[in-house]
Amino acid sequence: MADQSLPEARTPAAPQPREGAAPPAAREGISRRRLLGTAGATGLVLGAAGGAAGYAAAPAGATPLSSVGEDRVMFHGKHQPGITEGLPARGHLVAFDLAPGAGRKEAAALLRRWSDTARRLMAGEPSADGDTGVAQDAGPSSLTLTFGFGHSFFARTGLEERRPVALDPLPDFSSDHLDKARSNGDLWVQVGAHDALVAFHALRAVQKDAGAAARVRWQMNGFNRSPGATARPMTARNLMGQIDGTRNPKPSEPDFDRRIFVPADGEPAWMANGSYVVVRRIRMLLDDWEKLPVKEQEAVIGRRKSDGAPLSGGTETSAMDLEKTDSAGDLVVPFNAHARITRPDQNGGAAMLRRPLSYHDGIDAAGVPDAGLLFVCWQADPLRGFVPVQRKLDRGDALTPFIRHESSGLFAVPGGAAEGEYVGQRLLEG
Amino acid sequence: MADQSLPEARTPAAPQPREGAAPPAAREGISRRRLLGTAGATGLVLGAAGGAAGYAAAPAGATPLSSVGEDRVMFHGKHQPGITEGLPARGHLVAFDLAPGAGRKEAAALLRRWSDTARRLMAGEPSADGDTGVAQDAGPSSLTLTFGFGHSFFARTGLEERRPVALDPLPDFSSDHLDKARSNGDLWVQVGAHDALVAFHALRAVQKDAGAAARVRWQMNGFNRSPGATARPMTARNLMGQIDGTRNPKPSEPDFDRRIFVPADGEPAWMANGSYVVVRRIRMLLDDWEKLPVKEQEAVIGRRKSDGAPLSGGTETSAMDLEKTDSAGDLVVPFNAHARITRPDQNGGAAMLRRPLSYHDGIDAAGVPDAGLLFVCWQADPLRGFVPVQRKLDRGDALTPFIRHESSGLFAVPGGAAEGEYVGQRLLEG
């Protein structure tokens, strides 16, 4: 079936190495470029200059792929893909629970299938078994697939002794309104791409691979700006209109790896070069938010809406002056401003790499959009990343009245698979 | 609020004229380019060569907008935008019902607000009243807004005498499974753009403009390929993996205008240069479809999955040989193949311009995706476009077991607004 449904001579696009897989000289430039989200915009010009389309079977007279389609992320590498790459224009999050009776053996076979599918699809090739054809004609479009394990996975597979302490359930937060059916799960998969059909194709392939071994627990869709749509690709805007991600740690910073990834000699050993991801579905109460005058919105956030600069002055990247007062003696950045509370230097150096998606699932019966942020954040240790920041936000964030955490997940995302290896193999076969 | 939230010196992007607004020499080339869906891919190279960003307030060192962001569609013109332009990467469909007590006067004021918002947003400017800022930093990204009137609008506004016969309810089709709550409506708005946040921003602005005059009846989200993601921008693939749109009428064809648009001297006068749109939410039963071997999928459609060529041979654009038989004497294109039944020359020359979106609203409790096609088709007369084709499909389309029409709408979309005019003014004030 796959053979019939796909072009005969499909030459994969030239790979773009990721950190860990790249020659040392290229590493820094590439990972930084991707992290900053400029891959689309920068690559665009390169793509137009480079000219060649991504595969040989393109019809005569076809328009060459731009780098939007042509860009390819490597599956194999030190870390899994989908963590330090720029924000994808389209993404899917999906959690699975192992089927009754499925254990370690079935889980290992599933991770092997998933890894094979990820490697193929990220290279712009069809999946091994009955490809649906939905991604045909498109390039890999920076597709990434990322796989993680939830707390409940370990008891179901007899691997409780290998469960990291970092997977202990997150504490309760008083402002949470969590739907358990849309929280956690045995397994988690993140799909991202710059093309919605490429992303959907990968999601369906992942679901098909699950077969009888696992069932979908929950699934969410999200989006970010399209490459080339903005002159400000450094940081995204969310559906509140606010610039988001200014203070994200950058791979060029000396402590980036230490904060985001488990060390190569870290514990447990199967999590070497891995990371922990916290996923929160954060609904935005847009009808309330949009009624606030911009001045009040800015006081809630602590930054200017137009350009993201701190209310204490400067530009988006200027340091925030936390002590600055106005002529009345009031703090210019209010004590409960969201950006003040979340500053790493206010949280013992806690840092997490946020790589979110906006979501919009239509409008409910009251005419209110079911929309907000699929908050996805990465850290070497959730107890030093997400938890202390969220504790402080929970106690006094001015943003709290305008958002609602509706679901939550915490997953252990192992390091990248080496050639010939599948993701999680060191856990499942070690 | 709007002034505070937006850059001070925002120079709109250079407009790209639409047919009717363009000088005659430029008209054919532009409308054809956009209809074929190549605007993104072609414009990409132009954008990179042209270089200049879309607005003056871009931060120093910012990456210039590519044509993905920079492309602008004109609001004013002979026809409304969003009909002959290429497929948008992201789209929203929303229907409103007038609020109890709201009549012709309130509807006229609403259409005036909507037209002003559409003109501003399509130019990359903020809306007049409390812009949310979500589209800030982005270019217009080929944003289009399109407005239509449903059958029920006319009784509620005392304009029944002006209701076109073409708005008479569509006949019942035996294979329909229509949800009335997600069908029809007094007013219909289509939003399309190549950036998801630009599209969401416009949707929110339209909803805010509705104010107390109208309430959302239903709202749906969809997508198409991103510009530059495919080397085959001529026709799209749908979520079944099938190439879709090969036989769409093209503006270069001599009878294009006659088939798609009400003539300038047509009836009723307020519909001059307008069009009728049929909107169907068509769920795809993907679990069933994907179990079919590709050969059987191709027999259902009548075209090859890989390249869209008719099963009778040739390439995607080759004429279909309806009489050709194989060595066993069987029709090569089966008698109930979808592409055979929908051919205009099998339907008395009926033609409609399809400009669909794929949709995917997550996965239901059974793990089945709520996904398919937001079928949007345009014609001068639904009784000569959609209806005869759907009647034939209803009687014997091989595709019927794999799809389900879940909602339906029919709307009268008046011609484009002239400078200083709002959409529908000739209906509401004529």
From TrEMBL, chains A, B:
Residues 1-29 are annotated as: Disordered. GO terms for cellular component: cell envelope; cytosol. Residues 12-28 have a biased composition (Low complexity). GO terms for biological process: iron import into cell. Its EC number is 1.11.1.-. Binds 1 heme b (iron(II)-protoporphyrin IX) group non-covalently per subunit. It is an enzyme of class 1 (oxidoreductase). Its main location: other. It catalyses: heme b + 2 H(+) = protoporphyrin IX + Fe(2+). It is found in: Cell envelope. GO terms for molecular function: ferrochelatase activity; heme binding; metal ion binding; peroxidase activity. The keyword DNA-binding does not apply. InterPro entries: Dimeric_a/b-barrel (IPR011008), Dyp_perox_C (IPR048328), Dyp_perox_N (IPR048327), Dyp_peroxidase (IPR006314), EfeB/EfeN (IPR006313), TAT_signal (IPR006311). Residues 235-417 form the Dyp-type peroxidase C-terminal domain. PROSITE patterns: DYP_PEROXIDASE, TAT. Its cofactor is heme b. Keywords: Heme, Iron, Lyase, Metal-binding, Oxidoreductase, Peroxidase, Signal. The keyword Heme applies. Residues 80-224 form the Dyp-type peroxidase N-terminal domain. Belongs to the DyP-type peroxidase family. Involved in the recovery of exogenous heme iron. Extracts iron from heme while preserving the protoporphyrin ring intact. This is Deferrochelatase. It comes from Streptomyces prasinopilosus.
